[in-house]
Amino acid sequence: DIQMTQSPSSLSASVGDRVNVTCRASQSISNSLNWYQQKVGKAPKLLIYAASSLQGGVPSRFSGSGSGTDFTLTISSLQPEDFATYYCQHSYTTPRSFGQGTRLEI
Amino acid sequence: QVQLQESGPGLVKPSETLSLTCTVSGASISDYYWSWIRQPPGKGLEWIGRIYTGGSTNYNPSLNSRVTMSVDTSKNQLSLKLTSVTAADTAVYYCARRTDYMDVWGGGTTVTVSS
After folding, report:
1. Do A43 and B94 touch (CB under 8 A)?
2. What confidence tens digit (pLDDT) does each residue in B52-71 have?
3. Could you give the C-alpha distances from B99 to A49, A52, A78, A89, in angstroms and in order?
4. How far is A47 from A73, CA to CA, in rounded Å?
5. Do A50 and B101 touch (CB under 8 A)?
6. A18, A21, B68, B103 - which has most CB atoms within 10 Å?
7. pLDDT value for A106
8. B100 interfacial to chain A (CB closer than 8 Å)
9. The pLDDT of residue B64
10. How far apart are CA A79 and CA B39, in angstroms?
């Protein structure tokens, strides 16, 4: 099975900051990598699919990059509503798996 | 607008079977793969498995022997059964559309395993 490792596990930042969250796969997964945002008590929301494609309705301050084993989610200018937990997830094979999450705090 | 709604008992006794339903509106379940995911309290997301109409399924090996997924196309519903539950199966259970990337999620249903 493919293991996904995110870093950091938590991150403190301020409104207006540029933030990077990284995700590493235990083997090459091409561009089969998705990013989700989850707020407390809510279901996850798809942000980025296929490593760099922005899901419809998601603000353009979110972007994704990477291929192979190393991927990055970038938020270019943090907004108050962006403080949440972020998960990566691979879709290269089954079973799918998620990273352990990155909690973004004020 | 596609909407998913999970439903089922909120409390299940240890060793019994957890049974959940996901009702889909705004899309035909015949057109997509569908996923089940769970999240234990305070923890991360775990992919349980996927199903496509016609019976094609893939389950997480960590749960493989205990999980069964099915679809009812007449009701546009998915179902999940998990046998021999323990406290470790306490979680919020989500259904989601697609399995390459999960673009629409239900709101989740909380299941507690306790006597």
Report:
1. yes
2. 987 799 999 999 789 999 99
3. 11, 17, 29, 10
4. 10
5. yes
6. A21
7. 84
8. yes
9. 73
10. 26
